[in-house]
Amino acid sequence: MSVDPTEEVQEERPPIAPPLKLVKFRTISKGVGWWSAVVMVESWGKKIVSLYLWQRKDKEWRRKQKFTIRNKENWHAIHTGVDAFLNEVKE
User: How many angstroms from the chain centroid is the CA of residue 50?
Assistant: First the structure.
């Protein structure tokens, strides 16, 4: 989902704190107590892609984990490693 101030946003925006600026996001899963998403933010003029995990406490989302994917080479290594293990997982 892109962030466009002229669009009416139906989905809740991820709780990204300054100085990070939310560019766009895609929710992976969201329940009553947990929310995971792929998020693109801008930090000091540079775009960054991260996986976020938030937990809902006291009626607000609080970040529990963040994993940043630095570049395509980094993503390739992550993807290859995960795929190797997923071959052993039964659905």
Answer: 5
